[in-house]
Amino acid sequence: MWDTIAGAGSGEVLPERNLSGKYELGKLLGYGAFGKVYHARNVETGQGVAIKSVSKQKVIKGGHVAHIKREISIMRQLRHPHIIKLFEVLATKTKIYFVMELAKGGELFAKVAKGRFSEDLSRRYFQHLIPAVRYCHSRGVFHRDLKPENLLLDENWNLKVSDFGLSAVKDQIRPDGRLHTLCGTPAYVAPEILAKKGYDGAKVDVWSCGVILFVLNAGYLPFNDRNLMALYRKIYRGEFRFPKWTPPALARLLSRLLDTNPETRITLDEIVNDPWFKKGYKEVKFHEEFEDLKSDRNDGDRFINAFDLISFSPGFNLTGLFTDSDSKENSNEVFVSKESPERVIEKIEAAATTVEDVAVAGGKRKEWGLTLEGQDGNFVIELDVHRLTRNLVVVEVRSRENGVEPIHEIWKNKIRPMISGLIYRPDADGPISGLL
What angle do CA 32, 59, 136 make, to 5 degrees? Predict the structure, then answer.
């Protein structure tokens, strides 16, 4: 999805030159699966970024809402020096904007398309790629579409993995322990995917890494044919030849990477211990900083990542981006407050007790939560308060009804107006920030 996010563009400029008063948008850099990517500048810091503009209508009509939400969920987990970083998500009524790290060096594909790399340069980029993929796997993320077009270069010519649009997570693994979705780019797809019997996402990524390494060294694909079925036969049988200049140590590693049997194919742990790979290798050391994920052990505060909010919060989130927040079918709501959790619960409870037929459920008040019930048992409203940052909390309201009057009307028209002072509305008239 994040393909072609850096490089020479057509010169087209996004009509909205200023976004949220924070980013000044510039030239078109390229096209993605769901929209266009532009160069932009943070007006406060001067930092260059890439911003992808996506049409909500196009995403909804194309049935890609779950796809985008999964990709956002995946990208917010990944903070590695060799993975493109997603900074924040902004939104207006018609557009969603993804603010990402800018890779000024463009695609690795554009470089290798001009000619094969030297052994040392091939090794350098492979030493960038493997730790990034290994990191993804340690987080339960399998890319499934690794190829030079999805590997970008920064201004220092360091490799950055991008485009997690086809990625899978462990939750998608079926009871047989395998993934079953057919995906990937034909020339880089692993033979076990073609067998359609399920596959291990980690082993599939290793195969793709092998094809990439072959391309860097050879300057062309190991498996190539104009006829797609003929191409798949070559992949399934593992029919390829090394160019004559391939060093023996590299040939041995490639043979293990492009092993058609996933059970005997080399693993990522084995790759980092391979003699060819280890030459001059220095393990990348970095510190993941998620300030809003840190727990305060003194008061039990629960900090959640800002992108966790995206997964369920109307207004700040992708759920709210794709649904009508006033819909009567939507009985859930989330809002943000600058008040303390205790104060939020206190005010909501005080407001609820003034509403006829609404009562605080006996014995069901939680430390940072509250359950309200209809006196006739015709509805239940559950509220949970989570700390988002040291200054903000997020309040999740869930409800279910058993009676005639819609529960959302009780909350929306009777209780909510009395607590309007609790609700924090940043950028009320403009784009909504992902709060990172």
Answer: 60
